[in-house]
Amino acid sequence: MQKSFPLKLLVFCLPFLPLFQARGQDQPPVPDSRQAKSDQSNEPKKPPELITNDTPSGLESCNSFKQSTSAADKQDPALRAFLRSIAGRWNFAYVRRGDQRWWYNHSSSRPKNEVHYLFGPQALFFESRPEFAPPSITGCYVYGSGHQVSAELFDLELRKPSDPAVTQIVRLKLSTDHKKLEIALEAETNPEPTIQVLEFRSANWSPSPSPH
User: If you ran DSSP here, which 8-state letter would residue 38 be given?
Assistant: First the structure.
């Protein structure tokens, strides 16, 4: 039976938190400047995030996982075509919900440390790119099943390599110019989900440095 799991946004601290640990406290986003102070009590609570630092066993699974384009050819044709359309390196730009927007470190300004999403043929890797340190892989997910929701939306199942029984469905939307990718974690149950917005960087999906 499919199990949903919350995830935690702690990319640059507490490096050995479990990958699917529940958030201790919900943190509201920085409100849009158009929102009055009287509305602050009604701000949506921030849901679990996809970005995370993996456990030692999870990182070992990520480091040992070898992506294969031949194995990817065995995927459902619609899923394979969609994954090819989003293949590459994406920078996690910001988070939004409705008319609110905030950065993934919960502040009102863009963090200098970047987080890249690397969409390969069979798996999604997360790469932390600190300003004054070498990049490093902090986690990964293997693709499960997927299906097209509409002309613009695609649902994709993600599995933790160290525990394939634990799955989560994310909804993805690729812009018509293929420069922006949106990821909604709770789209199946929330009519106004929180969305992670990624910006395309390069066609390279390997866990290695890329030009800025």
Answer: G
Q: Which of 31, 171, 52, 38 is nearest to 106 (CA)?
A: 31
| pTM for the predicted model, two decimal places | 0.73
Query: What is the C-alpha to C-alpha distance for residues 58 and 38, in angstroms, rounded to an integer?
Result: 43
Angstrom distances, CA of residue 107 to CA of 111, 114, 181, 199: 8, 14, 21, 19
**Cβ atoms of residues 136 and 145 within 8 Å:** no
Distance between CA 67 and CA 122 in Å, rounded? 6
3-state secondary structure 156-168: EEEEECCEEEEEE
**Rounded CA gap, 52 and 35, in Å?**
30
Residue 39 pLDDT exceeds 70: no
CB-based contact 60:161 (threshold 8 Å): no
Which residues make Cβ contacts (< 8 Å) with residue 98, sequence separation at least 6? 44, 192
Structure tokens at 84: 């090819």
Measured CA to CA, the distance from residue 146 to residue 140 in angstroms comes to: 17
